[in-house]
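Data card: per-record layout.
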Amino acid sequence: MAARYGIGALTFAFVDPREARQWVDDYYRIFKEECVPIGHAVNPNVAMVTGFSLHADEAESRRRGEDGLRFFRYGLAHHYIFGEHQPGRTDIWANFEKARHALPPAGADHGIGTPDQLRTHLRQFEESGVDQTVFIQQGGRNKHEHICEALELFAKEVMPEFRQREIAREKRKQEELAPHVEKAMARKQPMKPMRDEEIPVFVALGRKVAEEGTGTERQKQNAKLWADAAKVTLSDPLRHNPKASVKQQEMDS
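The structure for this 253-residue chain is written out next.
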């Protein structure tokens, strides 16, 4: 669907880099042959998520980041596949710890390891035609300082070679897609401009609360406090003070 509408595709499926080739090939085949842009421009890109924990020592990298990624995947599955959730009562982390023994590991083949291992992992995505990878690094109980250290190590030892190749790769890609983008835009049928009366008017929430009386006293007090602090009026001067409007128009002219 993303390719048909000319928008980028992001997958949270944690696809193996070797499997990503089929996803990428399908996306760009559909984009080239069937795309009818939903907007006034297209964004042909495929991004895939992967884990991320980087350290010179592989064991330390896994100690710092493996459970975070496993919990992230468990949490997704809890909310989207198998879980039953009672807000404020269900403890997903506790359930994860009980299920940890049955969950698959997450090591170098998921972006968790040494700089050399991550470099190999990202090269596989690159060779499969994936445009961007998104690092899942804040899952579970991963520590902020460990994430920062990993990012610094990534920027120093892994990113430079990919950045150098990316500039040339993106140029080749744009040249290859240019005629297909032109055909896609030609397939787009322009919409008839809407008449003024067909365009809905949306009333500011604060005004709606004030006029309909639907807000609680606390909400009304908060609106007043915010307006005082921001030095704005709670009513439209053009609607409630016509003289001020006329005076302003005279000053403008």
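Known properties of this structure: Residues 202-252 form one domain. The chain has two domains: 2-187, 202-252.

See the next section for split statistics.
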